[in-house]
Amino acid sequence: MYLCINGDIMEDKKINPLLTGSAETMLQSFYARAKYSRKKNAKFYDAKAIELVDKIDYDFSKAEKDSTMSNGVIARTIVFDELVKDFINKNPDCTVVNIACGLDTRFYRMDNGRIIWYNVDLPETIEVRDAIYHESGRVSTIGISATDPAWADKVTKRGKMLFIIEGLSMYLTSDENAQMLSIIRDKFDNATVLMECLAKKWVNKEHSNGVQREHNKKLNNGLPILHKVPPKRDYGRYFCIMAEKGGTSHGGLTEKLSLFFHAKKQEVNAYGR
């Protein structure tokens, strides 16, 4: 077992997450952040990811082979970190809801000592997360699907609300994406949503290696549903973080994120009631 004290992990034996299917992709994302953090002049440093990669009993060679997805994870992490940090700086007493959190450790990079943070994911994923992190205090976990309205009832509304939807929309159907956004729109006031969407040109692209292909996951374009579920208040906003450009020959990440994966912040029109 692992003894966790104030978020610090004390080793006793290896963690065996026993994940399958789409839930396994969270380990690839986790590994990509840890590996990148070890690089000189990295744009972010994920200390907890580095710590845990060495303690998780898992074959990360799959992640090593899928450089396209791994570099995409790094690029979106840089962009999301920048946007989340900016939001927290402007709203230091805000509440952040991280949907499809997986093993994400962004709270520990963003914490200002005041924010309230909720990590939401499927029950089996939260079970693994809770066993590793034992989070408490200003960080809570909710083991409910993002398309089930019940998760929203477990979130205490305090201050400005920020919702992070990273690495999820492309795995949901159009109806599921619409349901997820409708829950946020209908249950929360003054909410800002940061949502990653896959560009249309990437929807039917097959990766030659990696976890994604192994589990035969069909990717979907999440962008159109943002127009189907407009914010209900004139101050509500969606920001779409979209994978815009193709090409897979560039394995390295540049200061401008990457040549094959250009992350762009696009504000989607907000409509009144």
TrEMBL record:
Top-rank taxon of the source lineage equals Bacteria
PANTHER family tied to this protein: S-ADENOSYL-L-METHIONINE-DEPENDENT METHYLTRANSFERASE YKTD-RELATED, S-ADENOSYL-L-METHIONINE-DEPENDENT METHYLTRANSFERASES SUPERFAMILY PROTEIN
Cite the entry's keywords alphabetically. Methyltransferase, Transferase
Q: Which InterPro entries match?
A: Ppm1/Ppm2/Tcmp, SAM-dependent_MTases_sf
Give this protein's Gene Ontology molecular function annotations.
methyltransferase activity
- A biological-process GO annotation: methylation
Pfam families the UniProt entry points to: LCM
Q: What is this protein called?
A: O-Methyltransferase involved in polyketide biosynthesis
Tell me if Methyltransferase is a UniProt keyword of this record: yes
